[in-house]
Fold these 2 entries.
Entry 1:
Amino acid sequence: MNLLTETGSTDNFIPDDHPRSESLRIRHKLVEGFEKGLVAKAGLIAHGRGEAFDYLLGEKTIESAEKAIQASVAQMLLCKHPVISVNGNVAALVAEEIVGLSEAVSAPLEVNLFYRSRERELAIQEALLEAGAKQVLGVDLDHRTLLPGISHQRRYVDDRGIANADIVLVMLEDGDRTIALRAANKFVVAIDLNPLSRTALAGSFTIVDNLIRSIPLMTKMADKLKGKDVVELQQIIDTYSHQRTLEDALRVMGQSYKQVAPMLDSIIVAIKDKQKK
Ligand code: ATP
Ligand code: MG
């Protein structure tokens, strides 16, 4: 039995002073999303892969990711048809926040699933509408069309959305589809905690960060950049380097070895404290 669900409330179960309380709360949200039919089983595992990289980032938005957010939002504001691709994990973790970003950058939300089922599509649509979305693309079968170059269920896109988009924001995305979107001449902004995934590499710009932190930061950035003129936005984009961003994320992760000595010290103190009690 899952102890997190046994209590019926995470607040009762996860003490605030637990060093991983935030991470446990996020996991619980995902489990709830799974129980509501939003999240696929494989989505739970994909989250775990992300968590491991987030641990190495120190579970914070690093400076190079902030720069990636700035350049990505500038590009989204400059493009004519931005679209935000949403899957089960996104709907379970940041439904309201993604609706906020959609409004801030005037980009419709499109449901796009790797493990597609009619039930999950409808459940995600419902969660987004409940969170305040005015329209959700990717669910109406009359508007379903194909993205060339992909053989699996992810080839379906909406003719009002990704099919005609010039820029697409993706997260927890599959490498094949990111490559197919690029091959279709779309600008792809990826949010991915793994700087070495094919999605992170194939994105035109990649934000190496937890989407839970970066989505609200993107909305704030959009509000800030909206007042800037085209030349200023273009300059932000022109001076940005995708490769440097990926390298910097790996550099930060590599530096985490320096935490071992101080962390060992604090664990010894914790053991001694317990022995005194
Ligand atoms: P790719 O297909 O791009 O090569 P992959 O097969 O290694 O990637 P997948 O399981 O297909 O990985 O996709 C999940 C990706 O999403 C992983 O790279 C993981 O790091 C990332 N991820 C998981 N949770 C989050 C999150 N909350 N925020 C940002 N990224 C996340
Ligand atoms: Mg993959």
Note: The first helix runs from residue 3 to 6.
Entry 2:
Amino acid sequence: WIAPLSLALAAGAGAMLCYLYVSAVNRLNDGVSKGVLDLIGNTPLIRIASLSEETGCEILAKAEMLNPGGSVKDRVALQIVREALREGRLQPGSLITEGTAGSTGVSLAMVAAALGCRCSIIMPDDAAVEKANMIHAYGATVQRVRPVSIVHPDHPVNVARRIAASTPGALFADQFENEANYRAHLKTGEEIWRQTRGRVQAFVSGAGTGGTIAGVSVSLKARNPRVKVFLIDPPGSSLFNKVKRGVMYTYEEAEGKRLRNPFDTITEGIGINRLTANFGKAVIDDAFRGTDREAVEMAQFLLRNEGLWVGSSAAMNCVGAVKAARALGPGHVVVTLLCDGGHRHLSKFHNPEYLAQMGLTPLSKGRELGFVA
Ligand code: PMP
């Protein structure tokens, strides 16, 4: 009987050791992420006290600058790459290409580095140089091209598509037409719903590819059809007229104004003059126009009153949140997105000399926005 007993004791001791090992490992892993990609999404929702006080609404903003690549586009890059890997359209080690104002390029470069892929980004040379430097730092190649219209073969999107087509195994991420972009933001909407415990009454956003406003609008309206979705559109973009009048032309064109260039705004990443597959999915109730001056003043206001350092599209989104709050009246819960932080805008949107050159030096502490001085 001694042999079975010692066998049982040894097995018991072994099981105990196993248990101790697993629980020690679990304790060690508590709060430890498996890698940088695990940190994408689930961003905090910040109550913006000053804007809430100004409007009598509760203005909440999702802190997308806290994604590891520094912008909302991390969500999209990860979704595009994961779907392509799952469907066998991309293999580890292969090339990912994209044409982008920059943020998606930074995010794709990060995701590619984390997953062992190569990455080649084409961006217009008038976008902030910080983004090109970041893409380069992640080990991707970056080509800056003269800003041209989408029908031109040298448009970043067309260059990126061509490189992918001529490189075996390469993936053209195609954020404008690839609906993985919109699918990434179904989760953003789900997070907003959960974080507000279903109290959200309005969502406001600018649109570049349209992925954000599409995914979030579909996700929120599926949970509560009464949630209102508003577009905030910068100068030079045609989406305001698309929402208001069903036609695609810029309001400057409609008013007979001459533009310095087709995309006459300093807000990088939002505004577009073509209909994309992702924007086509959006369910939008109404639209507002925002000026560059309002965005600049909002950015300064948030810096001084909240210690919040946001990029140009995030500032424009907050302009939109204020316009939505005023349209709805006091007492509403209005949510928007802080797409990225100010760091990557130091050479332009947060550069006083550049703003002076553009005639956009802030004149007041919120007067442009109609705030009480
Ligand atoms: N803000 C920034 C900084 C961006 O790069 C983009 C995307 N181009 C947007 C906002 C707009 O988001 P979406 O493409 O989902 O419309």
Note: The mean pLDDT is 91.
